Amino acid sequence: MILLLGISWSGFSQKDYKLWLQYNTLTNLDLKAKYLSHIKGITLLGNSETISIAGNELQSALEDMLEKKITVNTKLEVFQSIVIGSKTHLNAEIQKTVESDLNLINDEGFIIKSIVINNKSHIVITGKKEVGVLYGVYSFLRLIQTNKSIEKLNIADSPKTNIRILNHWDNLDRTVERGYAGFSLWNWQKLPDFIEQRYIDYARANASIGINGTVLTNVNANALILTPQYLEKVEALANVFRPYGIKVYLTARFSAPIEIGGLKTADPKDADVANWWKAKAKEIYVRIPDFGGFLVKANSEGQPGPQNYGRNHVDGANMLADAVAPFGGVIMWRAFVYSEHDANDRAKQAHAEFQPCDGKFRENVIVQVKNGAIDFQPREPFHPLFGAMTKTPLMMEFQITQEYLGFSTHLVFLPKLFQEVLESDTYQKGKGSTVTKVIDGSIYKNKITGIAGVANIGNDLNWTGHPFAQANWYGFGRLAWNPYLDSETIADEWLRCTFSNDKKFIAPIKEMLIQSREAVVNYMTPLGLHHIMDTGHHYGPGPWVSNLSRPEWNPVYYHKADKNGIGFDRSKSGTNAVSQYAPEVAVIFDKLETCPEKDLLWFHHVSWDYKLKDGHTLWDGMALKYQQGVNQVAAMQKTWNASEKYVDSERFKEVQMLLNIQYKEAKWWRDACLLYFQQFSGKELPIGVEKPS
Ligand code: GCU
């Protein structure tokens, strides 16, 4: 321990920084002995950078967890070893043992298998490509991190989506739009020559959960990123990320040909404009041969786009697609569009603009759709575009950063939210046409598939601001790899890798994580309420706000509370947004009696006296939900306080302080919303709901 001016620096944030790659020493000695009986060394086959990263990771993690020196060889020795190498580097004997397994995986997949060669047992970790080996190594290490058996292993696993990507909303001045974990990781001023250790650690963390792409810049794009001065910096980052299997992508500002190209227009039908983009793409690919492509926000919230020139999304996306196609690039064209000129129902606009474009996009265009039709709310019904475009690949856009969910102050385990959306049945190709099956391409047999997550990462010591927000980065990656994973499994894995394998810790804290999502819904937006956060920053309640210039920016537009009731009527007799869903779904949402209560006020304007399924009136039920949210946070505090002995004091205190704030703010939400809505309902608070103090 170093004592400097009386301040103790011991253990300073190291645990926080190490994310889920803690590799804690095993405390269960029997288990440790069992693992050691299978691991006498490492055999490294092949000598690429990726394989050496995999070898180093394996060696140092095993040494940390098992407290034993593990030797690394490049030939199969007599002892039992972990053999790692891609298919082409395996010797004939080993190849034979995994031949049929290799048919089960795709190019990024891996095999982990217990094999016997010359009477010696080994564990082979292999894949068709070296990045698969790296993924396999992380998966193998996770078995040990989570105290699973490594006997008789026979695992064949592949990612279910092609593009598993983080979207950084990072500006060139290092501010991060909707970022609550410090400034941007990308130190543009010092790049390209100064490579921060963070870039490597970032790549490592992402590779460990299978993330294979990163969009470095904000969707509200700055054309400067496409100038040579910045491209050489992007190239430096791409070089760092490449051995970890991570491709770099950029956001393309549609008006870049004017802003940095000296052209008079950015009209996608103008030959000079198309040629400018072609030349720009070539320039990028000369530097970064595996550049992923562009993410584009066009004609949304003031961003320029093809509609500025009387063209449409297809014209814009296809023009860019043609520029990157010769190099294998893709265009991720966002469907997050809404305009003040159609104030009827913002929720309908993306479907109305995009569905008619189905089948008109180039093969290397994928349309990126937010999980819900408004904007990353604590709960939204799934976006009606999912399943509604049969000839166009759609990728999911989740928001990992908690713009509407209490920033990095509130503890909310997002995989639960993500899972709910992914499991929703669109019925677009009959029962079982879940959102997952749309985005993994299994329903419409799409060639490109993907999941994007708006990153919650910044240069905070712990990366994500809240220690538990790391779970949302982790969970996003795991779901992007396998969108069928259960959020409980993810919570279990993350807790074991990040904190402890002690059952007495895992059981209650896992429950806390799982409940945390419903808690935030309850104290912010129960029963289908949405977008009632204070405007601009979106932190804290603001259901009363009504003075913003655009109608759909005002919370009153969304809750429509009056003396008759509350909620947005999107039924057939309202804006008819329900009609954008498949008939089987539309009919359920349309009727008050069949609409799930969790989505009630999303689809209906409901009288204060309406009887909910549990017999309470809507007013009473809503008030009780707000109270329940507060109670749930109180329970989270209690659970956390009881876990003190299992957690290092630094993280324990951080989470404790944050939960205290969350509790205060849950009450703030409850009191503010109930007092405001009470003006319309004119009713007393029911028994069981605390009166505002
Ligand atoms: C939200 C968010 C903006 C962001 C936008 C987008 O509206 O508040 O900051 O730019 O989404 O996704 O494009």
Automatic annotation (TrEMBL):
InterPro entries: A-glucoronidase_C_sf (IPR037054), GH (IPR017853), Glyco_hydro_67_aGlcAse (IPR011395), Glyco_hydro_67_aGlcAse_N (IPR005154), Glyco_hydro_67_C (IPR011099), Glyco_hydro_67_cat (IPR011100), Hex-like_dom2 (IPR029018). GO terms for molecular function: alpha-glucuronidase activity; xylan alpha-1,2-glucuronosidase activity. Belongs to the glycosyl hydrolase 67 family. The active site is at E301, D375, E403. Pfam families: Glyco_hydro_67C (PF07477), Glyco_hydro_67M (PF07488), Glyco_hydro_67N (PF03648). The keyword Hydrolase applies. Its EC number is 3.2.1.131. One of its GO terms (biological process) is glucuronoxylan catabolic process. Homodimer. It comes from Flavobacterium aquicola. GO terms for cellular component: extracellular region. Keywords: Carbohydrate metabolism, Glycosidase, Hydrolase, Polysaccharide degradation, Xylan degradation. Residues 464-688 form the Glycosyl hydrolase family 67 C-terminal domain. This is Xylan alpha-1,2-glucuronidase. Coiled coil: none annotated. Residues 144-463 form the Glycosyl hydrolase family 67 catalytic domain.
